[in-house]
Write a structure and sequence with these properties.
Two copies of one chain form a homodimer.
Chain A: E1 2-7, H1 12-24, E2 26-27, E3 30-39, E4 50-54, H2 60-67, E5 72-75, H3 81-86, H4 88-108, E6 114-120, H5 143-160, E7 165-171, E8 173-174, H6 188-197, E9 202-203, E10 211-215, H7 217-229, E11 240-242, E12 246-249, H8 250-261, E13 269-270, H9 275-282, H10 292-295, H11 304-314
Parallel strand pairs in A: 1-3, 1-5, 3-4, 5-6, 6-7, 7-11, 8-10, 9-13
Antiparallel strand pairs in A: 2-3, 10-12
Helix pairs in contact in A: 1-7, 2-4, 4-5, 6-8, 8-11
Chain lengths: ~325, ~325
Amino acid sequence: MTRAIILGGGGFLGRKLAHALAEKGSLAGKPLSRITAADLAAPEDLPAGVEPLALDVTDRAATATALAEEDVVFHLAAVVSGQAEAEFDVGMRVNLDGTVNVLEAARHGGRTPRVVFTSSVAVYGGDVPSPIVDWTALEPQTSYGAQKAAGELLLSDYSRKGFLDGVGLRLPTISIRPGKPNAAASSFMSSIFREPLQGETANCPVGPDYPVWHSSPRTVIRNIVHAAEVDAAALGRFRAFALPGRTDTIGEMIAAMTRVAGPEAEARITWNRDPEIERIVTGWRGDLAPTKAPRLGFVADASFEDNVRYFLEDDVRR
Amino acid sequence: MTRAIILGGGGFLGRKLAHALAEKGSLAGKPLSRITAADLAAPEDLPAGVEPLALDVTDRAATATALAEEDVVFHLAAVVSGQAEAEFDVGMRVNLDGTVNVLEAARHGGRTPRVVFTSSVAVYGGDVPSPIVDWTALEPQTSYGAQKAAGELLLSDYSRKGFLDGVGLRLPTISIRPGKPNAAASSFMSSIFREPLQGETANCPVGPDYPVWHSSPRTVIRNIVHAAEVDAAALGRFRAFALPGRTDTIGEMIAAMTRVAGPEAEARITWNRDPEIERIVTGWRGDLAPTKAPRLGFVADASFEDNVRYFLEDDVRR
């Protein structure tokens, strides 16, 4: 029997992960006896068998209590890139101090848990050569990226010390993300598909040649679940790495949407540049060539067309 | 007029830096109106014109007060590698939380100071190809290295945000370090020269083929002072980088000592292996090829023979 907790369980990825775990019912062959979805406000509308919990990861004592008997911790709780840039102190408190609290809670709980930490492609950037490979230095150009990169270093060190068993995943930009636009600078990379596919307009703040390293929610969830099951011995000494993804320009992604859903959606996109968003996202990198993650069994989407189909199947209620 | 403070001013590098600043009398052409040397216990026997201060960098409020009106902050305060490995919580508190306190104090002081942060070659290691270049990923194999690497990320991000003006230097192993053996796993890399050159015995816990990326104290101090003066615009987007150094094996370094000081010293070295020290130091890397630091005017020793001569001139009282 095994117990799992999702931190950030009220977010869109956390909810999808809760559904995936409830449906799967086991991890690494062991039945899931308890699944908890924790967030600042206890998540509502969870699938059957998933327990809600109100938890603020900046509260070290509460985090220690919540993680005391967990075998698998999915640490998705974070302040997103746009907010961490605008509210620096909040980002430091949640993304850095909160992550230390999670690592300490995992260390001092009774079970030396597998900790799956969602990092981000935002750790990359700066003056490094192309393409970005598994041993390319992290030179994040946002506070969010710097805080995630620091968390990765600590996750690996806590794992090396035997305090916990960590796996850090550098998530590609997730597109098409369901729900509403959020404070992430990458929010438009979903909204320019999500809104037009549902009859609404959306603005693209960068040009059509901007390249995106992306993955569908369905594939990211599959990879997060795989991270809970992958053999620790195969991970190597550094526990964080880039997930597989695809590079397409915004223009190529729009063309794929048109091939799946017809020309009406594209006509609903406006093209007003936003210098602040452009500054943040052009600090990221689209030219990744990871080899570690594919070798460990992590996967990418086959096409953005598939990705549009997944969105229509999984997230559009018709 | 400019004011400078040395955190870790009671350590051997801090003391040498205090002497260098007092002698130089200015930084970047501006006269030094005040030099402070701070450490857990207020340093004694400082050169004329250097003020002692008792300061614990884990005390955020005291650190804020100490840095409120400084133009240049030399942040050398740290728990060394052996201690950070043996006492994990102390290392996290001093090397990570303490560094955040220093960055916050520099941010909220009145002067947007240049912050020179001494990182370490211990940030390198793991499964990265040889040689290590400026854009090689950091995969530290010690808690000390992980904490220093996290500090570098924050230093760069605080600089990017304009909160301070940071320069992070990855120091080579310093040899020949004066004084007594300490808790650093690299301590033997000085003691096998320092003690035999002064008529005493010392043990080498690794074999003679072990390669060391090293620098003399005199050259490291010259580089730390240069870091306070180097043009920020030339630094690029990531503010931490490896200092120049030399790679020699322990055997080559001993041969150089013999060429300078005769054969008696070498005969005083014993060769009893220590598996724990060997485990830590073989996790480090000797194969570095930095290009950024030389381009910025940072320098290396010409030979280990020079290094032995510097030790005899600077640190042996006869």
